[in-house]
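User: My collaborator sent over this chain with a note saying "see what the structure looks like." That's all I know about it. Can you take a look?
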Amino acid sequence: AVYESIRGLGTGSGIMARITIPTPSVPMLAEDCLILNDVQESGNVGTLLRTAAAVGIAHVLCTSATAQDW
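Assistant: Without extra context I'll predict from the sequence alone. Here is the result:
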């Protein structure tokens, strides 16, 4: 009942989590970085993040028009 009253969409997967999103910062990077520029599909964002993790890229920057990475 609580989930039904607070979910934002008309449909959902029935999964919810409460997380703390870290405050973004743009450090000077001396290593590889993935930049997501206006990637609209959340599935594509997830694929790119998993691929970056698989090849050892630890830093990802997303523009404001990129789909949520959380």
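A starting point for your reply to your collaborator: The longest strand covers residues 33-36.
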